[in-house]
Write a structure and sequence with these properties.
The complex is a heterodimer of chains A (487) and B (114).
Chain A: E1 2-6, H1 12-17, E2 26-27, E3 30-31, H2 32-42, E4 47-52, H3 56-63, E5 72-77, H4 86-90, E6 99-102, E7 106-107, H5 120-124, E8 127-130, E9 136-141, H6 144-151, E10 170-171, H7 175-186, E11 204-206, E12 217-218, E13 222-224, E14 229-230, E15 235-236, E16 240-242, E17 247-248, E18 253-255, E19 257-259, E20 264-265, E21 270-272, E22 275-277, E23 280-283, E24 288-291, H8 307-341, E25 344-352, E26 358-366, H9 372-379, H10 385-392, E27 397-399, H11 410-415, E28 422-424, H12 426-430, H13 437-450, H14 453-472, H15 477-481
Parallel strand pairs in A: 1-4, 1-6, 4-5, 11-13, 12-15, 13-16, 14-17, 15-18, 16-19, 17-20, 18-21, 19-22, 27-28
Antiparallel strand pairs in A: 2-3, 6-9, 7-10, 8-9, 22-23, 23-24, 25-26
Chain B: E1 2-7, E2 12-18, H1 26-39, E3 45-52, H2 58-73, E4 77-81, H3 85-94, E5 101-103, H4 106-110
Parallel strand pairs in B: 2-3, 3-4, 4-5
Antiparallel strand pairs in B: 1-2
C-alpha cells in the first residue's frame, strides 16, 4: 500500500484562515495532515508521497522523514497548471499494490474509536469521494485494475463503501464545515482518534507547558495545545479548541470557539461561536471575517453603566449602619482593654477611597496572636468596626476591593475599570493579607468581573461565619483558611 | 563540482551534477553548459540529475532558471530529478517548484508527460 497526498491544492477555508498551510490547520488540536498520515499508517502503507505546493517548507518541516508515524515520507512537486493525477502517471506501476490518494481538504472521519476489521468486499472495489465536478478527492483501493483505470482518468462505475473501511471521509468545503467538525471533535468525537489511555473522561485535554494562573475557569470539554498561557479571569470552555502558543489575557470568555496557533487574545473580549486566527475573528455561520487590531475595543463583557451598583451601594450602606450600631458597644468595651494590654492596635494608612479620594484608613495590627481577647475581638469582626463606620459615612463600600494604596498599588488601579474600595474583600474574608501581587490582582479583577449583590451577600456571610468558627477552633486564623480560592 | 553532459538522438539531454552548485562554482557550470546547449540546437528537453547535489544557493538556482529560460525560448523544458533534501528546501522556500517540473527519478523525468 502506498499513499499520495496533495497538499498544494487550494482550499476555501485554508485561504481564509491565514498563512498556515491548510493541511497543517488543526482539527481538534491536531493538523489535518496528521489524520491522513495516521490513516496511511493504519492501512499499513510503507511509502507516503507528499506532493507539495504553497507552504511546502512548513509541511516538510512538520513531517520530516515520517518516522514519527512509522512511515517513510518522500516529497514531490507539480508545476502550476499540471493535472494532479499526472504525478501518479509518472510512475504508474508503483501503485499496483494499493493506493490511498487524497487531493483536497478531506477529513477522514472515523465511525468508531476502534477500526473495525476490514470487510473483504471492500478490498475488491475502489472507494472514492468526488467533488462536484467529478474529480476524485479521496480514493482508496487495493485493486490494480481499478488503480490503473483511475490513473488513465476513468473512475470505476460501482464504487465500494467507505463504511467497510470504518470511515466516512468528507470534504471540508468552507469555514462553517471546518468549525462544525472541530466542535464535534471537542464534544467527544476526538476520542475516536486517540490511543487508549490518552483521552480525558471529562473531555478536557491540555498540552504540555501550559501556564494557568489563578482565577481562570476551565469548563470541559476543551482542547488546549502546547505552550499556552492564560491570564487571570479568563473563562475557557465549554467547547473550546485552542492551538499551540496561544496567550489569553484577562477577562476573556471563550466558548464554542476555535483559536488557532500563535494567537493572542486581548482583555475584555467575549468570544463565542467564533474562529480566531492571529488578528482575525471569523463568524463561521455568516462567513464574516473581522480584522481586530485593538482587541480590547471590541465586545466589552458588560455594559458601561451598571444598574446593580446602586442597589449594592444602598444595601451595603444599610448593612454597614446596622453592623456599626451592633458592634459599637462590644468595640467600646474590648478595644481599650486590648490596647492597654498591648494585644493590638489600629494604625492609620493612606488608601484610595470612593471616587479615588485619598483617605486615612485605620488598619488593625495584631501584636499578640494567642491572646483570647484578641481572638474574640477578631472573631466578632470588631477589627472592621472603624472601616464599617467609614462605610456608614459613605467613604467605602461594604463589600468590594481591598482599599488600594495611592502609590504602591498604582499599577493595579490602572488595570481596574471599576474600583470598589470596601470594608470586606476577599483577603479580609480569608483573614490573610495577600502579599503576592499576582493574587491580589487576580482577586481584584475577579471581583470587578463578578461584582453583584449575590457575591456581596456570600462574601459577607462567609466572612463573619468563618470568623466565628475560627474563634471556636484551636488553630490560628490565617493557617486554617489560606487555601481557599476566592470563589 | 563536476558536471557530465550527455544527449540522446531524441533531442533530450541529461546533465548530472556532482557536488554543490553555488556562487563559488556556478561559472564552472554555466560556461560549458551553455556551450553544450549551443552545440545541440535541436535539443529541447534537458533533465538535470541533481541526486548528487548536496547544496544549491541563489546563484545555483539562478543558473537553472537561466537555463529554463533559454530552453523555453526554443519551446523546450528543463526537468529536475532526484532533488535531495538540502536542495529541495531551497526550491520550497523560493517557490521555484512552481516553475520547474520536478521528478523523483531520471527515468520518470525522461518519460513523455501525458
Amino acid at each position: 500500500m502506498k499513499a499520495v497526498f496533495h497538499t498544494g491544492v487550494r482550499s476555501d477555508f485554508g485561504d481564509r484562515l491565514g498563512a498556515t498551510p491548510w493541511c497543517l490547520t488543526p482539527f481538534g488540536g491536531k493538523p489535518l495532515l496528521e489524520y491522513w498520515l495516521e490513516w496511511a499508517a493504519s492501512l499499513g502503507a510503507d511509502d507516503v508521497r507528499l506532493v507539495l505546493g504553497d507552504g511546502a517548507f512548513e509541511v516538510e518541516s512538520y513531517c520530516g522523514d515520517g518516522s514519527r508515524w512509522g512511515l517513510k515520507i518522500t516529497y514531490g512537486f507539480l508545476k502550476d497548471g499540471v493535472a494532479r493525477e499526472s504525478y501518479l502517471r509518472r510512475i504508474s506501476s508503483t501503485w499496483d499494490d494499493g493506493l490511498l490518494y487524497i487531493c483536497g481538504p478531506v477529513f477522514p472521519q472515523r465511525l468508531a474509536a476502534d477500526a473495525p476489521p476490514v470487510n473483504p468486499k471492500a478490498l475488491e472495489r475502489m472507494t472514492w469521494l468526488t467533488q462536484d465536478e467529478g474529480q476524485a478527492l479521496c480514493l482508496l483501493s487495493t485493486n490494480p485494475q481499478d488503480i490503473q483505470a483511475f490513473i488513465k482518468g476513468v473512475l470505476p462505475a460501482a464504487p465500494g463503501c467507505w463504511s467497510d473501511w470504518g470511515l466516512e471521509p468528507f470534504l471540508v468545503r468552507n469555514l462553517k464545515a471546518y468549525y462544525d467538525v472541530n466542535m464535534r471533535l471537542v464534544k467527544g468525537e476526538n476520542r475516536r482518534y486517540v490511543s487508549q489511555g490518552y483521552g480525558g473522561k471529562d473531555g478536557a485535554s491540555i498540552g504540555y507547558n501550559v501556564q494557568i494562573p489563578p482565577s481562570v475557569e476551565l469548563i470541559p470539554p476543551f482542547t488546549i495545545g502546547n505552550d499556552c498561557r492564560f491570564h487571570a479571569i479568563a473563562v475557557i470552555g465549554p467547547n473550546a479548541v485552542i492551538g499551540n502558543h496561544v496567550i489569553v489575557d484577562s477577562q476573556t470568555e471563550l466558548s464554542d470557539s476555535i483559536v488557532l496557533d500563535g494567537t493572542y487574545l486581548g482583555s475584555n473580549l467575549e468570544i463565542k461561536h467564533k474562529i480566531v486566527t492571529g488578528t482575525k475573528i471569523i463568524a463561521p455561520e455568516d462567513d464574516i471575517i473581522v480584522e481586530i487590531t485593538e482587541p480590547w475595543l471590541l465586545a466589552r463583557l458588560e455594559a458601561p453603566v451598571r444598574f446593580n451598583d446602586g442597589l449594592r451601594l444602598l444595601v451595603g450602606w444599610v448593612l454597614a449602619v446596622l453592623l456599626t450600631l451592633i458592634q459599637a458597644l462590644p468595640f467600646a468595651l474590648l478595644y481599650p482593654w486590648i490596647r492597654l494590654s498591648g494585644g493590638g492596635l489600629f494604625r492609620l494608612s493612606p488608601r484610595l477611597g470612593r471616587r479615588n479620594r485619598v483617605i486615612q484608613l485605620p488598619e488593625w495590627e495584631t501584636l499578640t496572636q494567642s491572646s483570647l481577647k484578641v481572638r474574640l475581638f477578631i472573631s466578632l469582626g470588631l477589627d472592621l468596626f472603624p472601616l464599617l463606620a467609614r462605610a456608614a459615612c459613605g467613604h467605602l463600600w461594604l463589600c468590594g476591593h481591598t482599599p488600594l494604596h495611592p502609590e504602591r498599588d498604582q499599577a493595579l488601579r490602572k488595570r481596574l475599570h471599576r474600583y470598589y474600595p470596601a470594608v470586606i474583600s476577599y483577603p479580609a474574608r480569608q483573614m490573610i493579607a495577600y502579599k503576592d501581587p499576582a493574587t491580589e490582582m487576580a482577586n481584584a479583577l475577579y471581583y470587578e468581573r463578578y461584582a453583584s449583590l449575590r457575591e456581596d451577600s456570600r462574601t459577607l456571610f462567609r466572612t463573619f461565619t468563618l470568623r466565628l468558627l475560627n474563634a471556636l477552633s484551636e488553630e490560628p486564623a490565617s493557617s486554617a483558611l489560606n487555601v481557599e480560592s476566592p470563589r | 563540482m563536476n558536471a557530465q553532459f550527455t544527449n540522446t538522438d531524441q533531442g533530450v539531454g541529461v546533465v548530472k551534477i556532482d557536488g554543490g552548485l553555488n556562487a563559488a562554482n556556478v561559472d564552472d557550470f554555466r560556461a560549458p553548459c551553455f556551450r553544450w546547449l549551443a552545440e545541440h540546437e535541436g535539443m529541447n528537453l534537458i533533465v538535470m540529475d541533481l541526486g548528487a547535489v548536496d547544496f544549491i544557493d541563489s546563484a545555483g538556482l539562478g543558473v537553472l532558471i537561466e537555463l529554463l529560460k533559454r530552453l523555453s525560448e526554443r519551446g523546450g523544458d528543463v526537468r529536475l530529478a532526484c532533488l535531495q533534501k538540502q536542495a529541495r528546501i531551497v526550491f520550497e522556500i523560493t517557490r521555484a517548484y512552481k516553475i520547474f517540473a520536478i521528478y523523483d527519478s531520471v527515468e520518470a523525468a525522461l518519460q513523455i508527460e501525458t
